[in-house]
Amino acid sequence: MRTDVIRADRKDARPVAVELLRAGGLVAFPTDTVYGLAAWPWNAEAVARLYEAKQRPSDRPIPLLLSDVGRLDRVSLGPPQLCSALMRLTQRFWPGALTLVLPKAQSVPDVVSAGSTVAVRVPDLSLARDLIGDAEGVLAVTSANLSGCRSPVTAQEVEEQLGGRIELILDGGTSRGGVPSTILDCTVSPPELLRHGAVAEAALRAAIGTIKVPDEK
Asked: Whole-model pTM above 0.85?
């Protein structure tokens, strides 16, 4: 397979990317953290290809990136017991590098997340949000690397790992963050920190109070 690399600021970059995604292709693009690899979330074959391209274990769900918080109701059922905390988190950290694990809406295919939850985020990069918006506001996106390898922060690093496995890389320069997002499980009370990342524990506690950290005694 040929992997094309085009500049993200090219006039036709987003239309080309969305057309490929709609057709079941895989597209890598920069986010505010690292480069992400996207598939059309409602196309089971495309999401399966994403797993294959990354050599990602099939039991690891794919997060969903949203163009804005208004898309949240499409993919998630807000946990009633945490509605006020959820509002504070999205107001404080979205757009941004915080991924929230929430109850999954019935619309989310099992190939994206086979369980009862789904991971969601709104990236803090207009290029990424605009692309996702052109794609109806939701994309299945995970880091654009081979599973277990370093997350890429440039188009060249994506090509080194995934060249020949995906259709397109949008070259938007170096991702400014370089650190994966923090993951917080909001389906439990208190919310549980599943992965340390760009948003610090202290910032989360300042926003909502108590959080659970697994390695805390």
From this structure: yes
